[in-house]
C-alpha cells in the first residue's frame, strides 16, 4: 500500500457513460425540518465523488437515499434510469453496497463471516452457498488484502482493519456502485490514505462523504458541497474548493495552494471567519 | 499473517464435506434427544425399563402388545411420555425464541420473555385461578394464553407509538413486564388464599406436571411452524449483525422481517408458557451455548439451539421431579440454578469483547 499517491489519472478509467445511479432534486425531512432540499447528483460511472459539507448538512441522508434505505419525500433516485423503488430491495443491494462510518456488532464473527454477509442479497432461503458465492468472497478478500486474516475474530481488529473488512463485505455484494459514509473517521492517517487508495482503485462508481477537504482533493474526481441540505457547489476539486467557498460553507479562513499547474489543490486552514 | 492461504480448488469439496458434517451432526443430535427421552421416561419411583417403555409406545401405535399392568402402562403413556415430550418441545421452543430475539433485538441478554409475554400469561392465569375470570369456560392455560397475547399486543402498540426502534421495543417489553408482574402480585396478595397462592407460585416458576397429549400436540405444531418460519429467515437474521441499517442495505425488509419474527416467536412463547409456565433461563443461556458450539450463522445455529434446548429441558425436568422425590421442585428452579452460573459466564464474555 503506497500511501499518499492520491488518485491516479492514468486514463484507465471505465468509459464515461450516462450516470447509472443518480439523484434528481431529492428532498427529505425529519421532525418537520428539511434535511435535504432538492439535491441532484449524477456521478460519472467509475469515478469517485466526494460529498462535502459541515455536520448536519445532509451528507448521510443523501447517501441513505442513494442506497434506497430511505425514500425521498420529493424527487427521485434512479438506477439505470429506473426509480430505486421499482427495483426491489434485494435487487438494489446486488448493485449498490454501503459502508457506514462506524460498524460494530456484539456477535462474535470472523473476518470471513462478515465478508460472507455481502452475499445475502444474492442468496435464496434454504439454499447453501454456491461456487459463485465462495468465489465472490475469495475475490473480495484478495482485493482488500485480507485473505490471510479470514479466520481472525472481528473484535480483535483495529478501526482501520474493520473498515477494510466492511469494504471487503461490500465488494462481496459485487456492486457497481459503492457508497461510503465518512469511512475514514477515527482512523489514523496511514489507514485514511490506505482506505481511500483502495476505494479509488476499485472498478466501481463511488460516492464518499468526507470531512477532510485535503483527502477529498486528493482522491475525488468531483466533489459536491452541501450546506443546510442544499448543494452549493459541484465540480472537480480544483475548481470547486476555493477560499471563498470554504469561508462561505465552513466559516473558516483557508489558503488554497497548488504545487504546480494541473495539480490537486492543497488547503491550509488559518482560523475561523468570525475571529482568530 | 503467516497463515497458509487456502487453495481455491479445495473449496467445493470442503463445502460438500461441510454439508455432510451438518447432516451427520443433526442426526447425532436427534439421536441424543431420542435417547434422552427414552431414558428419562424410565427414571422415577415406578420401576420401568427402557424395554417396558418401548413396548407401551409400540402397543399404543399398534405394533404389538405390552405385558405391563394398566397402571404402569398409564404411568408411561399418560404421565411420563407426554411430560417428557412437552419438556423437549418447551426446551426447543424457548431456546429458539431466545436465539431469534437476541439477534433481532441485537441484545445478548434478550430472552423469549423480554417482550412481556410470560408476565402477561401469569396475569391471565391468576385472573382465572384466583378471580374466576372467564366464568369457568376459560382454563388456566387458556387464560394464560389470552394474557400472553394481550401483553404482546400492548408491547407492539407501545413500541410502535414510541417510535419503533429496537431500544423502544425492549423498553416497551420491560414496561409491560413490570406492569403485569405488579398486577399478578396485586391479585395474588389481595384475593388468593394460602393454598391457591402456593399453586399459583408453582405455576409461575414453571412446571411440566400438567402435561397431557393435547398440550404436546398443540405446542409441537406451533413449534414446527415457528421453526420453519425462523429457518426460512436464517440468512436475514445473519444480516442483522451490524444493525438494522446495515441489514436494510443488504436488501432485507427490516420492518416486515421484525414484525413476522416477533409475532411468530411471541405466539410460540405464549403457547409454551400457557402449557408449562414461565420456565426461565433456557431461552437466555442455550442460544449462547449453541453459538459457542457452531458459531453465529443462523442456518446452523437455530437447529442446534433447538436440539440443545430440548435435551437440556428433558434432563432438567427429570431432575426436578426426582431429586426431592416424592416432592417436586419447580423445573424453573432447576433451570435457573443451572442457568445463573451460565448467565454470569455470558456477562463475562460480553464484558471481554467490549
Automatic annotation (TrEMBL), chain A:
Entry keyword Nucleotide-binding: yes
Superkingdom of origin organism: Bacteria
Pfam families on file: ABC_tran
Alphabetized PROSITE patterns for the sequence: ABC_TRANSPORTER_1, ABC_TRANSPORTER_2
Residue ranges occupied by any ABC transporter domain in the UniProt entry: 21-253
Annotated Basic and acidic residues bias: 1-12
A GO term for molecular function: ATP hydrolysis activity
Keywords: ATP-binding, Nucleotide-binding, Transport
CDD domains hit by this protein: ABC_Iron-Siderophores_B12_Hemin
SUPFAM superfamilies: P-loop containing nucleoside triphosphate hydrolases
InterPro entries assigned: AAA+_ATPase, ABC_transporter-like_ATP-bd, ABC_transporter-like_CS, P-loop_NTPase
PANTHER family named in the record: ABC TRANSPORTER ATP-BINDING PROTEIN, HEMIN IMPORT ATP-BINDING PROTEIN HMUV
Protein name per UniProt: Histidinol phosphatase
UniProt organism field: Streptomyces caelestis
Automatic annotation (TrEMBL), chain B:
Predominant location: membrane
GO biological process assignments: siderophore-iron import into cell
InterPro entries, alphabetized: ABC_BtuC-like, ABC_transptr_permease_BtuC
Source superkingdom: Bacteria
GO MF annotation, one: transmembrane transporter activity
Alphabetical UniProt keywords: Cell membrane, Membrane, Transmembrane, Transmembrane helix, Transport
TM helices/strands, residue ranges: 85-105, 112-131, 137-157, 169-188, 200-230, 261-286, 329-348
Membrane topology value: Multi-pass membrane protein
Location(s), subcellular: Cell membrane
Any one annotated GO CC term: plasma membrane
Statement: the UniProt record of this protein carries the keyword Phosphoprotein: no
Family note: Belongs to the binding-protein-dependent transport system permease family. FecCD subfamily.
Entry protein name: Iron ABC transporter permease
Amino acid at each position: 500500500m503506497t500511501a499518499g499517491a492520491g488518485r491516479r489519472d492514468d486514463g484507465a478509467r471505465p468509459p464515461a457513460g450516462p450516470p447509472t445511479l443518480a439523484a434528481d432534486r431529492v428532498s427529505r425531512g425529519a421532525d418537520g425540518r428539511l434535511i435535504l432540499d432538492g439535491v441532484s447528483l449524477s456521478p460519472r460511472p467509475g469515478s469517485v465523488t466526494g460529498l462535502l459539507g459541515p455536520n448536519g448538512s445532509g451528507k448521510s441522508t443523501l447517501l441513505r437515499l442513494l442506497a434506497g434505505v430511505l425514500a425521498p419525500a420529493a424527487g427521485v433516485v434512479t438506477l439505470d434510469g429506473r426509480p430505486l423503488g421499482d427495483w426491489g430491495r434485494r435487487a438494489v443491494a446486488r448493485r449498490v453496497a454501503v459502508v457506514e462510518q462506524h460498524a460494530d456488532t456484539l456477535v462474535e464473527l470472523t473476518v470471513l463471516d462478515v465478508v460472507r454477509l455481502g452475499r445475502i442479497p444474492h442468496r435464496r432461503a434454504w439454499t447453501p452457498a454456491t461456487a459463485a458465492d465462495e468465489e465472490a468472497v475469495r475475490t473480495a478478500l484478495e482485493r482488500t488484502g485480507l485473505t490471510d486474516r479470514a479466520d481472525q475474530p472481528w473484535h480483535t481488529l483495529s478501526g482501520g482493519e474493520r473498515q477494510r473488512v466492511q469494504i471487503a463485505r461490500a465488494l462481496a455484494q459485487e456492486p457497481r456502485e459503492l457508497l461510503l459514509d465518512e469511512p475514514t473517521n477515527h482512523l489514523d492517517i496511514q489507514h485514511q490514505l490506505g482506505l481511500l487508495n483502495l476505494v479509488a482503485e476499485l472498478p466501481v462508481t463511488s460516492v464518499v462523504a468526507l470531512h477532510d477537504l485535503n483527502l477529498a482533493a486528493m482522491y475525488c474526481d468531483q466533489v459536491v458541497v452541501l450546506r443546510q441540505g442544499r448543494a452549493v457547489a459541484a465540480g472537480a476539486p480544483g475548481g470547486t474548493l476555493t477560499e471563498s467557498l470554504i469561508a462561505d460553507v465552513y466559516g473558516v479562513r483557508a489558503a488554497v495552494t497548488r504545487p504546480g499547474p494541473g495539480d490537486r489543490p492543497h488547503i491550509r486552514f488559518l482560523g475561523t471567519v468570525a475571529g482568530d | 499473517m503467516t497463515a497458509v492461504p487456502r487453495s481455491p480448488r479445495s473449496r467445493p469439496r470442503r463445502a460438500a464435506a461441510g454439508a455432510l458434517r451438518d447432516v451427520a451432526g443433526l442426526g447425532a443430535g436427534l439421536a441424543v434427544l431420542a435417547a434422552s427421552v427414552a431414558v428419562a421416561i424410565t427414571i422415577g419411583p415406578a420401576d420401568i425399563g427402557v424395554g417396558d417403555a418401548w413396548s407401551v409406545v409400540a402397543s399404543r401405535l399398534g405394533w404389538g402388545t405390552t405385558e405391563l399392568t394398566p397402571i404402569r402402562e398409564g404411568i408411561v403413556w399418560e404421565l411420563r411420555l407426554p411430560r417428557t415430550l412437552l419438556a423437549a418441545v418447551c426446551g426447543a421452543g424457548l431456546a429458539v425464541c431466545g436465539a431469534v430475539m437476541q439477534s433481532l433485538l441485537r441484545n445478548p441478554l434478550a430472552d423469549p420473555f423480554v417482550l412481556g409475554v410470560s408476565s402477561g400469561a401469569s396475569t391471565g392465569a391468576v385472573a382465572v385461578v384466583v378471580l374466576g375470570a372467564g366464568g369457568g369456560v376459560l382454563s388456566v392455560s387458556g387464560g394464560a394464553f389470552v394474557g400472553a397475547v394481550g401483553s404482546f399486543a400492548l408491547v407492539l402498540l407501545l413500541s410502535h407509538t414510541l417510535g419503533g426502534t429496537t431500544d423502544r421495543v425492549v423498553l416497551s417489553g420491560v414496561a409491560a413486564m413490570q406492569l403485569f408482574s405488579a398486577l399478578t402480585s396485586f391479585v395474588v396478595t389481595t384475593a388468593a388464599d394460602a393454598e391457591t397462592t402456593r399453586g399459583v407460585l408453582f405455576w409461575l416458576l414453571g412446571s411440566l406436571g400438567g402435561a397431557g397429549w393435547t398440550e404436546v400436540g398443540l405446542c409441537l405444531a406451533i413449534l414446527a411452524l415457528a421453526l420453519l418460519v425462523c429457518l426460512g429467515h436464517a440468512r436475514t437474521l445473519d444480516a442483522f449483525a451490524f444493525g438494522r441499517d446495515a441489514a436494510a442495505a443488504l436488501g432485507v425488509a427490516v420492518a416486515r422481517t421484525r414484525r413476522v419474527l416477533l409475532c411468530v416467536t411471541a405466539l410460540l412463547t405464549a403457547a409454551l408458557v400457557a402449557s408449562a409456565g414461565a420456565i426461565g433461563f433456557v431461552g437466555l443461556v442455550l442460544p449462547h451455548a449453541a453459538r459457542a458450539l457452531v458459531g453465529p450463522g443462523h442456518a446452523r445455529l437455530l437447529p442446534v439451539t433447538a436440539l440443545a434446548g430440548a435435551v437440556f429441558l428433558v434432563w432438567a425436568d427429570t431432575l426436578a421431579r426426582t431429586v426431592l422425590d416424592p416432592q417436586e421442585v419447580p423445573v424453573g428452579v432447576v433451570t435457573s440454578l443451572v442457568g445463573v452460573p451460565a448467565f454470569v459466564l455470558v456477562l463475562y464474555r460480553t464484558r471481554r469483547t467490549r
